[in-house]
């Protein structure tokens, strides 16, 4: 019985930590401990568990925590319920899909990977399909480049120093490309990650200017040409802007 009480108490404390993020986008260990009224050692253990399960993400540069991809996945399951805030994003994704005719995806960064957290599939018989929860490297693909271009410089530096960085990709050229992406507001990719696939992506920035996610349009490269991607880029950026107004 006593063990059961301890287990329930740990769950309640973990939930209290998650609820702190209803009012804050990112917090450090000391800040979280102060807000929930627990010792830092206790909070550190709970944070490690929440991070391990994907409910929180720790930024290696700032050592601050923010909500992770599991929260997005839970929100996606409630997408059909009108009282769910996460459902607000889906109409914009569906609207963009109907405008451009291709698959629409939402990605966030976790460490040196990006994770597909939500998607609206194209109506075309031949289309780009990747499951929600799929993980991909940060050094290839339009969404990856957006997630790096609009992130803190320390995040980019950490990736460049990482053993995950492929020797075949010149770092100086890659960084120059990120500068161009920041200037134009979107990124494109053609067959960078797999043959026959192309994508255009734009950043979703909150009202406070924080990068929340990358919004991407993807499809077969013979249909989603560079010319076509440049043509629809303003629509992608506008959809991302509207989605950003829905996020704190």
How are the elements arranged and paired?
Layout lengths: L1 H19 L8 H8 L3 H13 L3 E3 L6 E3 L1 H9 L11 H12 L2 E8 L2 E8 L14 E3 L4 H8 L3 H9 L9 H14 L2 E4 L6 E9 L5 E10 L5 H19 L4
Please give a structural write-up.
The chain has two domains: 2-67, Winged helix-like DNA-binding domain superfamily/Winged helix DNA-binding domain (Arc Repressor Mutant, subunit A, Orthogonal Bundle); 69-244, GAF domain (Beta-Lactamase), CATH 3.30.450. It has nine helices and eight strands. It has helices at 2-20, 29-36, 40-52, 69-77, 89-100, 142-149, 153-161, 171-184, 226-244; strands at 56-58, 65-67, 103-110, 113-120, 135-137, 187-190, 197-205, 211-220. Helix 5 packs antiparallel against helix 9. The radius of gyration is 19 Å and the shape is globular.
Helical residue percent? 40-55%
Q: In CATH's first tier, which class of the largest domain applies?
A: Alpha Beta
Mean pLDDT: 85
Q: Runs with pLDDT <50, length 5+?
A: 79-86
Bin the strand percentage.
Answer: 15-25%
Spatial sequence of strands, sheet with the most strands? 5-4-3-8-7-6
**Main beta-sheet annotation:** 6 strands, antiparallel
Number of strands: 8
Q: Please tally the helical runs, counting DSSP H or I stretches of 4 or more residues.
A: 9
Overall, the morphology is globular
SSE order, one letter for each helix or strand: HHHEEHHEEEHHHEEEH
- CATH architecture call of the largest domain: 2-Layer Sandwich
Q: Rg, please?
A: 19 Å
The CATH homologous superfamily of the largest domain: GAF domain
The end-to-end span amounts to 41 Å
What's the domain count? 2
CATH topology of the largest domain: Beta-Lactamase
Assign the structural class, choosing from mainly alpha, mainly beta, alpha/beta, alpha+beta, or little secondary structure: alpha+beta
């Amino acid at each position: 019985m006593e063990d059961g009480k301890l287990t329930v108490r740990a769950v309640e404390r973990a939930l209290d930590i998650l609820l702190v993020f209803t009012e804050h986008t990112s917090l450090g260990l000391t800040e979280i401990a102060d807000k929930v009224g627990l010792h830092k050692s206790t909070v550190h253990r709970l944070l490690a568990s929440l991070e391990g399960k994907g409910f929180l993400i720790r930024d290696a540069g700032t050592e601050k925590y923010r909500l992770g991809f599991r929260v997005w996945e839970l929100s996606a399951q409630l997408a059909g319920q009108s009282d769910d805030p996460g459902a607000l994003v889906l109409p914009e994704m569906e609207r963009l899909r109907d405008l451009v005719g291709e698959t629409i995806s939402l990605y966030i960064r976790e460490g040196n990977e990006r994770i597909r957290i939500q998607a609206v599939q194209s109506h075309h018989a031949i289309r780009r399909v990747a499951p929600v929860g799929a993980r991909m490297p940060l050094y290839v693909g339009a969404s990856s480049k957006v997630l790096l271009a609009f992130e803190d410089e320390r995040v980019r530096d950490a990736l460049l120093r990482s053993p995950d960085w492929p020797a075949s990709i010149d770092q100086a050229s890659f960084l120059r490309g990120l500068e161009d992406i920041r200037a134009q507001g979107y990124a494109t990719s053609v067959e960078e990650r797999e043959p026959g696939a192309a994508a255009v992506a734009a950043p979703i920035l909150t009202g406070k200017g924080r990068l929340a996610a990358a919004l991407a349009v993807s499809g077969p490269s013979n249909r989603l040409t560079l010319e076509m991607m440049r043509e629809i880029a303003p629509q992608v950026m506008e959809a991302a802007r509207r989605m950003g107004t829905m996020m704190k």
